[in-house]
Amino acid sequence: MHLEIRLKTLTPLWTGGVDQTCDRLHETGLIGSLRWWYEALVRGLGGYACDPTSENRCPDRNGDHCAACELFGCTGWARKFRLRVLDASKQLILETIPADTEFTLEFVELRPIQPEEKWLLVKSIEIAARYGALGGKTTLKPQKDRYKGVDYGIVQWIEMQPEITKPEIIHYFQRSDFRGGEGEFPDLRWFFFLKDAFLGRVQINSLIGLSDDGRRIIGHEKYQQFLRGRRGGKNQDAVSKKIFSFHVAGGRVWGYAKDAHMRGEIIRQIRQQLGDGKYTVKTGEEVLNEL
Ligand SMILES: [Zn+2]
């Protein structure tokens, strides 16, 4: 397979030293975020994808692994492709891509990739490009202070080659009967995407139940606890925030909830913060229906 996806950065994009390692725990850059969106899409379509940072990660006791690990690899099972990020003159890009730059994601097949996997890969990238964000320093880890206020990872979809027709994806998931534990992992169905909208820091703090300055917890609704995640400490891991807002290109807000009910509540609260305006709201379920 030779799969090429052309994108253009609207903000800088941190690739994070692409393809240096197969160890998912250290996949913090672009490849980690590609996997993150792939997992969300797999779950959104009714498949199982483990959380590779959790205890329940693949392989399981029988050596089986989930749909995401099948493509992206896990302990004892190598990733099926190599990812290269190329600039307009086909030179490798290793670190950060500046804003307003066209680039190509080139997937080099190392072992046979199923048509379903190719389709899932392309669609997950398309969804991230059209509605979300890519690369490190946005979604996977709580943001570091030095990146506060700087948009990262917003791209524009240009095209892909070759075109891929939609396979019978349901059958693909039925083939694998491996199931892991249930969790509160990102599931594309419960995502929300706003276009032409922007939430400032104080608005985000209000939504996630923090004081204006972000220092104190003042809201205890379930959706607020879920959205804000938590800081890491001696005895607990950090849990990422689940709502993100970007200034660029008219504004973009996206995030996810635990289920449809919580997603509805969050969208209501966001509408209250934004008031009337010409923004559009789309749910992950709507995005899935359009695939
Ligand atoms: Zn897995």
Describe this structure in words.
By secondary structure, the chain is of the alpha+beta class. The chain has two domains: 2-175, no CATH class; 188-289. 27% of the residues lie in helices and 18% in strands. The chain has eight helices and ten strands. It has helices at residues 30-44, 67-72, 115-131, 169-175, 201-207, 222-228, 260-274, 284-289; strands at residues 2-9, 13-14, 81-86, 96-97, 102-109, 155-161, 191-195, 243-246, 252-256, 280-283. The strands form three sheets. It has a four-stranded antiparallel sheet with strand order 3-5-1-6, covered by helices on one side. A hairpin with a 5-residue loop joins strand 8 (243-246) and strand 9 (252-256). The longest helix is centred in the middle third of the chain and has 17 residues, at 115-131. The chain is globular. Mean pLDDT is 86; it is low at 20-26 and 139-147. Zinc ion (ZN) binds at residues 50, 57-58, 65-66, 68-69, 74. Zinc ion binds at residues 50, 57-58, 65-66, 68-69, 74.
